[in-house]
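Continuing the batch. This is chain 6 of the set; chains 1 through 5 are on the previous pages. Same settings as before, nothing changed between runs. Recording input and output for traceability.
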Amino acid sequence: MMKRFALVMTLCLSSSAYADDVAEVWKAKCKSCHGDDGKAQTKMGQKESIADMSLAAWQAAESDADIRQAIAEGSPKNSKMKAFKDKLTPAQIDALVGYIRTLKAK
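Output for chain 6:
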């Protein structure tokens, strides 16, 4: 019983740490253009006409593979979006894809 409790606590704490990690990566690498909420209502977001990632239509139109590709290789829709494949691990890129999916407007 105690082993199960320890395992559950470890999983909960590591999930929380994982969520904190991806939020920190978002803050460090994405927020300046895409904003906290993915709506791109930032100076650079508006200047570059960056899409609002919180819109249901955007979320439906972009596959996880499309998002992953844009993060890794840069955006084919905006040449100012640089590639992060040399700055982020594949796991961090995957985590960002999941994070972006949470930005969907309610």
